Amino acid sequence: MTVHPVTLGAINLEARDPASLATFWASVTGSTPSPGGDTVHLPPAGPGGFAMFFRRQEGPRPERHAVHLDLTVPWGTRQAEVERLIGLGATCRWDVLDEFPHVQWTTLADPEGNLFCVAEHPPAQRAAQVP
């Protein structure tokens, strides 16, 4: 059996206001929303980026999120990025800073309550020094 490379085509989100949520995520990623009928497409902002689709929410939002996005930024830039995202309308939920030597992150919620994390991974030599 031949296994072909698998890549992420797009992340799909339901939203009470798809256009508004797409605008928030466009500001996060640096992309430009492309409305089309009942949905909004957010293409990748560049190589290595990811696409998103937003459509109208058809039922109540589940209380527990089974999936969320983990966004990665360079070491030492997480706090500045978190502050930028809060300025765009995200809400800080919690930080995980000292529990794991290979990563620290902040969990946020977008304007409609979808959780996502902003993570930074220390340089290899720093991760090896942390007990």
UniProtKB/TrEMBL annotation:
Give the superkingdom in one word: Bacteria
| Annotated Glyoxalase-like domain residues | 11-118
Question: What InterPro entries would the database entry show?
Answer: Glyas_Bleomycin-R_OHBP_Dase, Glyoxalase_6
Q: Which PANTHER family match?
A: CONSERVED PROTEIN (PTHR35908:SF1), HYPOTHETICAL FUSION PROTEIN (PTHR35908)
Q: What is this protein called?
A: VOC family protein
